[in-house]
Amino acid sequence: MLKFTSLGGAGTVTGSKHLLEHVGKRILVDCGLFQGLKNLREMNWEPLPIAPSSIDAVVLTHAHLDHSGYLPKLVRDGFQGKIFATDATHDVAKLILRDSGFLQEKDAEYANRKGFSKHKPALPLYGVHDAERALERFSSVRFDEPVKLPGGATLKFRYAGHILGAATADIEWGGTRIVFSGDLGRYDDPVMLDPAPVTEADYVVVESTYGNRTHEKGDPIEMLGSVIDRTVQRGGTVIIPAFAVGRAQSLLYHLWQLKKAGRLGSVPIYLDSPMSISATDLLHAHRADHRLTPEVCDAVCAIATYTRDVEASKAITASTYPKVVISASGMATGGRVLHHLKAFAPDRKNTILFSGFQAAGTRGRDMMQGAREIKIHGEWIPVRAEVADLPSLSAHADSDELMRWLSGFRHAPARAFIVHGEPESSEALRVRIGRELEWKATVPRQDQAFDL
Fold first, then answer.
1. Distance between CA atoms of 140 and 278, rounded to whole angstroms?
2. Looking at CB atoms within 10 Å, which of 177, 203, 299, 385 has the fewest?
3. Could you give the domains of the chain?
């Protein structure tokens, strides 16, 4: 009998970790960090309910931090198996995990130097060395080619859209077939491929980030242009907190389209995130994983001025001229964008533009909900700038698109498990699946086990 337990991503949109157990073997699907609310972040410091050394393999659907960011700690705490991922996910994980380890070391050092941490001394959850050790355990898997996992399981990855390398994971083990959606992307996205259909499964584990809403209809290029136009007319700067992998590249594409249409004039565009720049370079390395032709890819990547070093980033912050600045992180939880927010959020001329999901407990969610001040590096920063949102630019499938993917199954699975969503989103998707597909659907609780 196959046993399924969600050790993360249950009742929340972060920390995805889903455990499969059969005949004494254990496979973990995704291994993400909890982000956002403090009570969730604190779970990263708690030991897993099972020993990492008892896990035989990890299957990684994609490299975003909420799906991969716990891997360095898992390895440090004793995991010795392989981490199965697509080639592009492996390359993206090199960027994300090294950056995560580096930022955690720097944040701890900064907190100790400034003395604003309650912990004496403040320590990182893990560092760059731990990230390197995790990356050594990766084993690359091609899309659509079955591979054997420990314990006799078979894995097949299919395109999920969303970001470079993102996959759905089809696992057959002990005569039971369970499919994990990972994070599904959008249909007809101009950059990423459509989520590939899956037609058969005994069980489905589906994300529900936008399980209770649909994305705004309309031309995202026109909407983006409108925000930039009105901000520049005020003499202001547009700051776009963007996920370094996925959103940053899609934004460059839309900005390229605006520039091509003569909408941006001489307004400079900056990509101020070393990781975003490196992730953009990966578009060239993994051309089969996206829609852009080599010529368009080159043009899109050339639309912005790239700033890798700190002094160039400081110069952007110091400049009073109108401009567009794309900088990580996407929920304003860390990275260079915090310095830009400190400089530009207090001025009404400027705009803070969000283009992706903002989890509860993040500065991004607070600003989206109207917060008039945010805490950065121990001090309170007033938010007087316009705060705008372009959900149509999201890389996540909305409720209709999730249902479209689920509708591709020829037969009803025995059960659908709804994960990776805030409670109202997961519950809304559960109800919709039951009403429209007449499937049995469940929203698992943290650490709740199911015999399949």
1. 20
2. 299
3. 3-213+395-451 (3.60.15.10), 220-393 (3.40.50.10890)
Among 209, 260, 178, CA closest to 35 = 209
pLDDT of residue 188: 93
Give me the mean pLDDT over the 375-395 stretch. Answer: 90
186 Cβ contact partners less than 8 Å away, ≥ 6 residues apart: 161, 192, 215, 394, 395, 396, 397, 398, 401
How is residue 145 written in tokens?
Answer: 């080619």
Say whether pLDDT at 428 is over 90.
yes
Model confidence over 217-269: pLDDT tens digits? 878 889 999 999 999 999 999 999 987 777 888 899 999 999 999 888 889 99
Span of 224-228, 298-302, 440-444 with lowest mean pLDDT:
298-302
- Work out whether strand 449-451 and strand 3-8 pair parallel, antiparallel, or are unpaired: antiparallel
* Phi, psi of 222, deg, nearest 5: -65, -40
**pTM for the full predicted model:** 0.92
Tokens encoding 304? 């912005």
Residues 256-295 as b/e (b if ≥16 CB within 10 A, e otherwise) read: bbbeeeebbeebebbbbbbbbbbbbebbeebeebbebeee
Give dist(CA 423, CA 230) in Å, integer.
Answer: 36
Nearest-CA neighbor of 165 among 251, 96, 78?
A: 96
The predicted structure's pLDDT at residue 425: 97
Encode pLDDT of 126-148 as tens digits: 999 999 999 999 999 999 999 99
